[in-house]
Amino acid sequence: MRARGFRGTIQVVGAEEHLPYDRPPLSKKVLSGTWGEEQIRLRGQRELDALRAGFLLGRSAVRLDVQARTVALDDGPSLDYGRLVLATGLRPRTLPGTDSLYGVWALRSLEDCAGLRAELLTAHDVVVVGAGVLGCEIAATARQMGLRVSMIDRSPVPMLRQTGPDIGRLLSSLHAEQGVRILMGSGTTGLTDEAGRVTGVTVKGGETIPADVVVVTIGSVPATDWLTGSGLPLDNGIVCDERGRAGVDLHAVGDVARWSHGVAGDGLRLENRTNAVQQARSVAADITGAEDGYHQVPYFWTDQYDIRMQVFGWVWLSCREL
Ligand SMILES: Cc1cc2nc3c(=O)[nH]c(=O)nc-3n(C[C@H](O)[C@H](O)[C@H](O)COP(=O)(O)OP(=O)(O)OC[C@H]3O[C@@H](n4cnc5c(N)ncnc54)[C@H](O)[C@@H]3O)c2cc1C
Q1: CA of residue 148 to ligand 1 center, whole Å
Q2: Which CATH number fits domain 94-218: 3.30.70.1150, 1.10.10.10, 2.30.29.30, 3.50.50.60?
Q3: Relative to the CA of 13, which ligand 1 atom is closest?
Q4: Ligand 1 centre and the CA of 42: distance in Å?
Q5: How far apart are CA 31 and CA 164, in angstroms?
Q6: 64: exposed, middle or buried (C-beta count within 10 Å: 0-12, 13-18, 19+)?
Q7: Which residue has a Cα nearest atom 19 of ligand 1?
Q8: What is the pLDDT of residue 266?
Protein backbone atom coordinates (compact mmCIF):
# COMPACT_ATOMS: atom_id res chain seq x y z
CA MET A 1 0.00 0.00 0.00
CA ARG A 2 2.77 2.45 0.91
CA ALA A 3 4.79 1.50 -2.17
CA ARG A 4 1.73 2.44 -4.21
CA GLY A 5 1.51 5.82 -2.54
CA PHE A 6 -1.24 5.18 0.00
CA ARG A 7 -1.13 7.95 2.63
CA GLY A 8 -3.92 6.94 4.98
CA THR A 9 -3.68 5.17 8.32
CA ILE A 10 -2.73 1.49 8.29
CA GLN A 11 -3.50 -0.66 11.30
CA VAL A 12 -2.32 -4.29 11.43
CA VAL A 13 -3.94 -6.62 13.98
CA GLY A 14 -2.30 -9.96 14.70
CA ALA A 15 -3.10 -12.68 17.21
CA GLU A 16 0.58 -13.62 17.54
CA GLU A 17 2.90 -11.59 19.77
CA HIS A 18 5.60 -11.40 17.09
CA LEU A 19 6.28 -8.87 14.40
CA PRO A 20 5.75 -10.41 10.92
CA TYR A 21 7.93 -13.47 10.32
CA ASP A 22 8.38 -16.05 7.59
CA ARG A 23 6.71 -19.40 8.16
CA PRO A 24 8.43 -21.73 5.60
CA PRO A 25 11.73 -22.00 7.57
CA LEU A 26 9.81 -23.25 10.63
CA SER A 27 9.74 -26.81 9.27
CA LYS A 28 13.28 -26.61 7.94
CA LYS A 29 16.11 -24.31 9.12
CA VAL A 30 14.48 -23.13 12.36
CA LEU A 31 13.33 -26.60 13.38
CA SER A 32 16.81 -27.98 12.73
CA GLY A 33 18.41 -25.14 14.71
CA THR A 34 20.38 -23.78 11.72
CA TRP A 35 18.51 -20.46 11.90
CA GLY A 36 17.27 -18.46 14.87
CA GLU A 37 14.22 -16.26 15.24
CA GLU A 38 16.02 -13.13 14.01
CA GLN A 39 16.72 -14.72 10.61
CA ILE A 40 13.05 -15.17 9.78
CA ARG A 41 11.80 -11.66 10.43
CA LEU A 42 10.07 -10.47 7.27
CA ARG A 43 11.19 -6.86 7.71
CA GLY A 44 13.78 -5.12 9.85
CA GLN A 45 12.70 -2.50 12.40
CA ARG A 46 13.72 0.39 10.14
CA GLU A 47 11.61 -0.91 7.25
CA LEU A 48 8.65 -1.47 9.57
CA ASP A 49 8.98 2.05 10.97
CA ALA A 50 9.07 3.43 7.43
CA LEU A 51 5.64 1.86 6.79
CA ARG A 52 4.10 4.18 9.39
CA ALA A 53 1.68 1.38 10.28
CA GLY A 54 0.34 0.55 13.72
CA PHE A 55 0.85 -3.03 14.88
CA LEU A 56 -1.63 -4.33 17.44
CA LEU A 57 0.01 -7.64 18.34
CA GLY A 58 -1.27 -10.39 20.59
CA ARG A 59 -4.80 -9.23 19.84
CA SER A 60 -7.47 -11.24 18.04
CA ALA A 61 -10.32 -10.00 15.90
CA VAL A 62 -13.45 -11.63 17.31
CA ARG A 63 -16.32 -10.07 15.32
CA LEU A 64 -16.89 -8.22 12.08
CA ASP A 65 -19.81 -5.85 11.54
CA VAL A 66 -19.89 -4.94 7.86
CA GLN A 67 -22.79 -2.49 8.28
CA ALA A 68 -21.11 -0.50 11.05
CA ARG A 69 -17.68 -1.11 9.46
CA THR A 70 -16.11 -2.20 12.71
CA VAL A 71 -13.90 -5.05 13.86
CA ALA A 72 -14.27 -6.04 17.51
CA LEU A 73 -11.12 -7.25 19.26
CA ASP A 74 -10.72 -9.66 22.16
CA ASP A 75 -9.55 -6.75 24.30
CA GLY A 76 -10.02 -3.00 24.06
CA PRO A 77 -12.21 -0.88 21.80
CA SER A 78 -13.41 -1.95 18.33
CA LEU A 79 -11.61 -0.63 15.27
CA ASP A 80 -13.39 1.33 12.53
CA TYR A 81 -12.30 0.77 8.96
CA GLY A 82 -12.60 2.40 5.58
CA ARG A 83 -11.07 -0.66 3.90
CA LEU A 84 -10.55 -4.05 5.49
CA VAL A 85 -8.18 -6.82 4.40
CA LEU A 86 -8.63 -10.26 5.97
CA ALA A 87 -5.47 -12.40 6.08
CA THR A 88 -6.06 -14.77 8.99
CA GLY A 89 -4.49 -17.88 7.45
CA LEU A 90 -5.16 -21.39 8.70
CA ARG A 91 -5.68 -23.44 11.82
CA PRO A 92 -4.10 -26.93 11.80
CA ARG A 93 -6.45 -29.93 12.00
CA THR A 94 -5.91 -32.11 15.06
CA LEU A 95 -6.47 -35.81 15.74
CA PRO A 96 -9.64 -36.15 17.83
CA GLY A 97 -9.01 -36.63 21.54
CA THR A 98 -5.30 -35.77 21.45
CA ASP A 99 -5.36 -32.07 22.35
CA SER A 100 -4.34 -32.56 25.97
CA LEU A 101 -1.72 -35.26 25.31
CA TYR A 102 1.92 -34.23 25.88
CA GLY A 103 4.26 -34.95 23.00
CA VAL A 104 1.67 -34.37 20.26
CA TRP A 105 2.40 -31.37 18.06
CA ALA A 106 1.12 -29.35 15.15
CA LEU A 107 3.45 -26.87 13.43
CA ARG A 108 2.11 -23.47 12.44
CA SER A 109 3.74 -20.83 14.63
CA LEU A 110 7.11 -19.88 16.05
CA GLU A 111 5.95 -21.15 19.46
CA ASP A 112 4.97 -24.52 17.96
CA CYS A 113 8.41 -24.70 16.34
CA ALA A 114 10.30 -23.87 19.55
CA GLY A 115 8.28 -26.41 21.56
CA LEU A 116 8.60 -29.15 18.97
CA ARG A 117 12.34 -28.55 18.55
CA ALA A 118 12.92 -28.72 22.30
CA GLU A 119 11.24 -32.13 22.40
CA LEU A 120 13.04 -33.42 19.29
CA LEU A 121 16.37 -32.66 20.96
CA THR A 122 15.77 -35.36 23.57
CA ALA A 123 13.53 -37.73 21.58
CA HIS A 124 14.46 -40.98 19.86
CA ASP A 125 11.33 -41.99 17.96
CA VAL A 126 9.19 -39.54 16.00
CA VAL A 127 6.01 -40.37 14.14
CA VAL A 128 4.71 -37.91 11.56
CA VAL A 129 1.01 -38.42 10.85
CA GLY A 130 0.24 -37.00 7.40
CA ALA A 131 2.60 -37.11 4.42
CA GLY A 132 1.72 -33.84 2.72
CA VAL A 133 4.33 -31.13 2.09
CA LEU A 134 4.63 -30.17 5.74
CA GLY A 135 4.80 -33.77 6.97
CA CYS A 136 7.52 -34.63 4.46
CA GLU A 137 9.57 -31.57 5.43
CA ILE A 138 9.31 -32.32 9.15
CA ALA A 139 10.19 -35.99 8.55
CA ALA A 140 13.28 -34.91 6.57
CA THR A 141 14.38 -32.41 9.25
CA ALA A 142 13.85 -34.87 12.11
CA ARG A 143 15.77 -37.53 10.19
CA GLN A 144 18.65 -35.09 9.61
CA MET A 145 18.64 -34.44 13.36
CA GLY A 146 19.40 -38.16 13.78
CA LEU A 147 15.99 -39.34 15.00
CA ARG A 148 14.19 -42.54 14.10
CA VAL A 149 11.29 -41.32 11.97
CA SER A 150 8.12 -42.98 10.74
CA MET A 151 5.64 -41.26 8.44
CA ILE A 152 2.05 -42.48 8.11
CA ASP A 153 -0.63 -41.52 5.63
CA ARG A 154 -3.81 -42.98 4.18
CA SER A 155 -2.66 -41.94 0.69
CA PRO A 156 -0.68 -44.40 -1.44
CA VAL A 157 2.27 -41.97 -1.80
CA PRO A 158 3.55 -38.79 -0.09
CA MET A 159 2.39 -35.40 -1.40
CA LEU A 160 -0.15 -37.05 -3.69
CA ARG A 161 -2.43 -34.02 -3.90
CA GLN A 162 0.39 -31.59 -4.57
CA THR A 163 2.54 -33.56 -7.02
CA GLY A 164 0.55 -36.59 -8.24
CA PRO A 165 1.36 -40.32 -8.09
CA ASP A 166 4.59 -40.44 -10.12
CA ILE A 167 6.53 -37.82 -8.16
CA GLY A 168 4.89 -39.17 -5.01
CA ARG A 169 6.53 -42.56 -5.66
CA LEU A 170 9.93 -40.87 -6.09
CA LEU A 171 9.39 -39.06 -2.80
CA SER A 172 8.53 -42.35 -1.12
CA SER A 173 11.85 -43.79 -2.31
CA LEU A 174 13.74 -40.65 -1.28
CA HIS A 175 12.44 -40.79 2.30
CA ALA A 176 12.95 -44.56 2.51
CA GLU A 177 16.56 -44.20 1.29
CA GLN A 178 17.14 -41.59 3.99
CA GLY A 179 15.94 -44.08 6.58
CA VAL A 180 12.37 -42.92 7.19
CA ARG A 181 9.93 -45.75 7.74
CA ILE A 182 7.10 -45.02 5.31
CA LEU A 183 3.67 -46.41 6.08
CA MET A 184 1.52 -45.32 3.19
CA GLY A 185 -2.05 -46.47 2.66
CA SER A 186 -2.40 -46.97 6.38
CA GLY A 187 -4.42 -44.68 8.60
CA THR A 188 -4.01 -44.34 12.34
CA THR A 189 -6.56 -45.86 14.68
CA GLY A 190 -5.37 -44.08 17.81
CA LEU A 191 -2.49 -42.98 19.99
CA THR A 192 -1.19 -44.78 23.06
CA ASP A 193 -0.05 -42.90 26.14
CA GLU A 194 1.30 -43.26 29.64
CA ALA A 195 0.37 -40.75 32.31
CA GLY A 196 -0.81 -38.25 29.70
CA ARG A 197 2.29 -38.47 27.51
CA VAL A 198 2.17 -40.07 24.06
CA THR A 199 4.03 -43.39 23.68
CA GLY A 200 2.98 -44.59 20.25
CA VAL A 201 0.71 -44.49 17.23
CA THR A 202 -1.47 -47.48 16.37
CA VAL A 203 -2.07 -48.06 12.69
CA LYS A 204 -4.74 -50.05 10.89
CA GLY A 205 -3.76 -53.70 11.15
CA GLY A 206 -2.97 -53.25 14.84
CA GLU A 207 0.75 -52.42 14.97
CA THR A 208 1.74 -49.71 17.44
CA ILE A 209 4.74 -47.66 16.37
CA PRO A 210 6.70 -46.29 19.34
CA ALA A 211 6.82 -42.50 19.57
CA ASP A 212 8.30 -39.99 22.01
CA VAL A 213 6.94 -37.26 19.77
CA VAL A 214 4.04 -37.29 17.29
CA VAL A 215 3.67 -34.50 14.74
CA VAL A 216 0.21 -34.21 13.24
CA THR A 217 0.19 -32.73 9.73
CA ILE A 218 -3.19 -33.75 8.41
CA GLY A 219 -4.11 -30.43 6.83
CA SER A 220 -5.58 -27.19 8.07
CA VAL A 221 -8.82 -25.27 7.98
CA PRO A 222 -9.25 -21.59 7.12
CA ALA A 223 -9.32 -19.40 10.24
CA THR A 224 -12.80 -17.98 9.65
CA ASP A 225 -14.64 -19.01 12.85
CA TRP A 226 -14.81 -15.41 14.01
CA LEU A 227 -16.54 -14.38 10.76
CA THR A 228 -19.52 -16.72 11.17
CA GLY A 229 -22.66 -14.61 11.12
CA SER A 230 -20.86 -11.62 9.54
CA GLY A 231 -22.67 -12.16 6.24
CA LEU A 232 -19.40 -12.73 4.37
CA PRO A 233 -19.44 -15.59 1.85
CA LEU A 234 -17.64 -18.46 3.64
CA ASP A 235 -17.12 -21.83 2.00
CA ASN A 236 -13.80 -23.51 2.81
CA GLY A 237 -12.34 -20.01 3.12
CA ILE A 238 -13.52 -16.50 2.28
CA VAL A 239 -14.99 -16.50 -1.21
CA CYS A 240 -13.62 -13.66 -3.34
CA ASP A 241 -13.71 -12.43 -6.92
CA GLU A 242 -10.59 -12.25 -9.11
CA ARG A 243 -9.38 -9.15 -7.25
CA GLY A 244 -9.83 -10.60 -3.82
CA ARG A 245 -13.01 -8.63 -3.11
CA ALA A 246 -15.27 -10.41 -0.65
CA GLY A 247 -17.62 -7.54 0.17
CA VAL A 248 -17.92 -3.76 0.10
CA ASP A 249 -14.44 -2.31 0.74
CA LEU A 250 -13.39 -5.69 1.96
CA HIS A 251 -10.71 -8.03 0.60
CA ALA A 252 -9.23 -11.37 1.66
CA VAL A 253 -5.77 -12.72 0.82
CA GLY A 254 -3.51 -15.69 1.37
CA ASP A 255 -4.28 -19.12 2.82
CA VAL A 256 -7.72 -18.06 4.08
CA ALA A 257 -8.97 -16.72 0.73
CA ARG A 258 -10.66 -18.48 -2.18
CA TRP A 259 -10.13 -16.37 -5.25
CA SER A 260 -11.58 -16.59 -8.69
CA HIS A 261 -8.69 -17.34 -11.06
CA GLY A 262 -8.64 -16.54 -14.78
CA VAL A 263 -7.60 -20.08 -15.74
CA ALA A 264 -8.52 -22.33 -12.82
CA GLY A 265 -11.97 -20.79 -12.38
CA ASP A 266 -13.82 -19.89 -9.18
CA GLY A 267 -12.90 -20.90 -5.68
CA LEU A 268 -9.15 -21.49 -5.88
CA ARG A 269 -7.61 -21.53 -2.41
CA LEU A 270 -3.84 -22.00 -2.28
CA GLU A 271 -1.76 -22.56 0.81
CA ASN A 272 1.62 -21.24 -0.16
CA ARG A 273 3.88 -18.32 0.46
CA THR A 274 4.13 -17.03 -3.10
CA ASN A 275 0.36 -16.93 -3.47
CA ALA A 276 0.01 -14.92 -0.26
CA VAL A 277 2.51 -12.32 -1.50
CA GLN A 278 1.06 -12.10 -5.01
CA GLN A 279 -2.50 -11.74 -3.76
CA ALA A 280 -1.40 -9.09 -1.25
CA ARG A 281 0.15 -7.11 -4.11
CA SER A 282 -3.03 -7.45 -6.19
CA VAL A 283 -5.16 -6.25 -3.28
CA ALA A 284 -2.89 -3.25 -2.67
CA ALA A 285 -3.24 -2.46 -6.38
CA ASP A 286 -7.02 -2.78 -6.27
CA ILE A 287 -7.37 -0.56 -3.21
CA THR A 288 -5.15 2.11 -4.71
CA GLY A 289 -7.08 2.03 -7.98
CA ALA A 290 -4.68 0.15 -10.26
CA GLU A 291 -5.59 -2.64 -12.69
CA ASP A 292 -3.80 -5.78 -11.58
CA GLY A 293 -6.03 -8.89 -11.71
CA TYR A 294 -4.65 -12.07 -10.20
CA HIS A 295 -3.71 -14.56 -12.89
CA GLN A 296 -0.34 -15.94 -11.82
CA VAL A 297 0.61 -19.56 -12.29
CA PRO A 298 0.45 -21.13 -8.80
CA TYR A 299 3.90 -21.93 -7.48
CA PHE A 300 5.38 -23.39 -4.34
CA TRP A 301 8.67 -24.87 -3.30
CA THR A 302 9.64 -27.44 -0.72
CA ASP A 303 13.04 -28.36 0.72
CA GLN A 304 13.60 -31.96 1.81
CA TYR A 305 17.12 -33.21 2.63
CA ASP A 306 19.36 -31.59 0.02
CA ILE A 307 16.60 -31.38 -2.59
CA ARG A 308 14.58 -28.31 -3.51
CA MET A 309 11.43 -29.14 -5.44
CA GLN A 310 9.52 -26.41 -7.26
CA VAL A 311 5.94 -27.02 -8.32
CA PHE A 312 4.15 -24.88 -10.90
CA GLY A 313 0.45 -25.10 -11.68
CA TRP A 314 -2.06 -27.67 -10.41
CA VAL A 315 -2.30 -31.40 -10.25
CA TRP A 316 -5.71 -32.82 -11.16
CA LEU A 317 -6.24 -36.30 -9.77
CA SER A 318 -8.81 -38.84 -10.88
CA CYS A 319 -10.90 -40.64 -8.23
CA ARG A 320 -8.86 -43.78 -8.93
CA GLU A 321 -5.65 -42.01 -7.88
CA LEU A 322 -7.04 -40.63 -4.62
C1 LIG B 1 5.75 -24.82 8.93
C2 LIG B 1 5.32 -24.25 7.60
C3 LIG B 1 6.16 -24.39 6.49
C4 LIG B 1 5.79 -23.87 5.26
N5 LIG B 1 6.63 -24.03 4.18
C6 LIG B 1 6.29 -23.50 2.98
C7 LIG B 1 7.16 -23.64 1.86
O8 LIG B 1 8.22 -24.27 1.92
N9 LIG B 1 6.78 -23.07 0.68
C10 LIG B 1 5.61 -22.36 0.56
O11 LIG B 1 5.31 -21.86 -0.54
N12 LIG B 1 4.78 -22.21 1.61
C13 LIG B 1 5.08 -22.77 2.82
N14 LIG B 1 4.24 -22.61 3.90
C15 LIG B 1 2.97 -21.90 3.71
C16 LIG B 1 3.12 -20.39 3.91
O17 LIG B 1 3.84 -20.13 5.09
C18 LIG B 1 1.73 -19.80 3.98
O19 LIG B 1 1.12 -20.01 2.72
C20 LIG B 1 1.75 -18.32 4.31
O21 LIG B 1 2.26 -18.11 5.61
C22 LIG B 1 0.32 -17.76 4.22
O23 LIG B 1 0.31 -16.43 4.65
P24 LIG B 1 -1.02 -15.78 5.25
O25 LIG B 1 -0.65 -14.38 5.55
O26 LIG B 1 -2.16 -16.08 4.37
O27 LIG B 1 -1.32 -16.58 6.61
P28 LIG B 1 -0.42 -16.78 7.93
O29 LIG B 1 1.03 -16.69 7.61
O30 LIG B 1 -0.94 -18.01 8.56
O31 LIG B 1 -0.82 -15.51 8.81
C32 LIG B 1 -2.09 -15.41 9.38
C33 LIG B 1 -1.97 -14.65 10.70
O34 LIG B 1 -3.27 -14.26 11.13
C35 LIG B 1 -3.36 -14.45 12.52
N36 LIG B 1 -4.78 -14.59 12.88
C37 LIG B 1 -5.62 -15.64 12.66
N38 LIG B 1 -6.86 -15.36 13.12
C39 LIG B 1 -6.79 -14.11 13.65
C40 LIG B 1 -7.75 -13.25 14.27
N41 LIG B 1 -9.04 -13.60 14.42
N42 LIG B 1 -7.34 -12.04 14.71
C43 LIG B 1 -6.04 -11.63 14.55
N44 LIG B 1 -5.10 -12.40 13.95
C45 LIG B 1 -5.47 -13.62 13.50
C46 LIG B 1 -2.56 -15.71 12.77
O47 LIG B 1 -2.17 -15.79 14.13
C48 LIG B 1 -1.38 -15.49 11.82
O49 LIG B 1 -0.36 -14.77 12.46
C50 LIG B 1 4.57 -23.16 5.14
C51 LIG B 1 3.72 -23.02 6.25
C52 LIG B 1 4.09 -23.56 7.47
C53 LIG B 1 3.20 -23.40 8.68
Answers
A1: 28
A2: 3.50.50.60
A3: 43
A4: 12
A5: 27
A6: buried
A7: 272
A8: 84
